[in-house]
Amino acid sequence: MKWFFGFILFTLTYTAARAQTYTLDHYLELAKNNSPLLKAVRNQIAASQIDSLRLRAGLRPQVNVNSNGYFAPVVGGYGYAGAITNVQTFNALLGVNKQLIGKQYLNTQLAAINLQRDSIINSGAVSEQDLKKTITGQYITAYGSLQQVKFNRDVVKLLTEEEGLLKKLTRNNVYKQSEYLAFLVTLKQQQLQLLQAQIQYKNDYATLNYVAGVVDTTTVELSEPVVQTTITPDASMSIFFRQFKSDSLRLVNTRSLIDYSYRPKANIFADGGYNTDFTTQAYKHFGTSFGFSISMPIYDGGQRKLQYKRLKLEEETRLNYKAFFNSQYRQQIAQLNQQINENDNLINQIKEQIKYAESLIKVDTQLMQTGDVKIADLILAVNSYYTITNLLTQTTITKLQLTNQLNYWNK
Prior knowledge:
The protein has 411 residues and is of the alpha+beta class. It has a single domain, classed as Outer membrane efflux proteins (OEP), CATH 1.20.1600.10. Helix content is 69%, strand content 12%. It is built from 9 helices and 6 strands. The chain has helices at residues 2-19, 24-34, 36-58, 82-85, 103-171, 177-211, 239-261, 303-368, 375-409; strands at 21-22, 62-71, 88-100, 221-222, 265-276, 286-295. A 4-stranded antiparallel sheet has the order 2-3-5-6, with no helix packed on it. A two-stranded parallel ribbon has the order 1-4. The longest helix has 69 residues, at 103-171. The radius of gyration is 39 Å and the shape is elongated.
């Protein structure tokens, strides 16, 4: 009795697992949540915000406590000159220092950080698009393997049903024993192909879990992927061109920072505390001091012009890469659209051919009941149907993969 209930429980569990299905969106969400790269991008964005706060904090008055003690003993008339060393000194000071910069210079520095953050955000968008393409591509591959399993299962079911009838007809001498054996060989071949398709689906499904960062050894059915062609955006709005724009702004900002580095710099400072050499009335040596400093570069050996030349070379490199990528981008989209249209035309023709193949099998199976068809003709019809249907599955999967590649660039 325990064995019986155990068998029922296993059957229900197995049935529930087979009935469970996962969608493409399910795996895309899992992959995004599990991706360490996307998590690193989010952390880098947060870090850039901290850099902006650190810059502002560094421009506030900086307060420090400093203390120094010094003793240069003179023994038997030997030692450092006391007029120079004061023999012994001690100080404990509270110092305040503030750098003075203009608001425009501050905004330029903040812009540099913001440009870096924008670059990280765009890199994250490209990385997410890469991940989406990879997951979708593997999902389509696994789904194609699943369709192959279902088709092989249907073919085996059809041949198994006809095998029982053919066996009876062979016993009644309607068909020869050799014809029955030829049909049986075809059935066994289809059963082996079904087993092979099941193994392939398990492998493709396991690969899907692997790239999505999912630890799961069970195998469930995948829903049909909804992969529709998205609208191609204007090149200036594409994430693949956004980086070129960001690089251009970065170079302009870098030039501004170079110009600001050659402007006068000013600091104000003050300190207060205790500073003494212990010579006379050390208890009175509490006090304060304050001042300012200004520095202005006059000549740097021509480094400024050299930095300008370097930026000019970087801009030329950026323009060359942009022009080349633009050509590749447009060529890739045009080629993918052409291939998708060709696959659509091929799919329509294959579907027409499948109708004829199905009709032929239907007629042959009806004629077989009366012995008016050769088993070799029925086997040929089944193989033809298998081949053309397999071609339909492959072409459909190819179209989905092409659409996935096109959608990758349409972001």
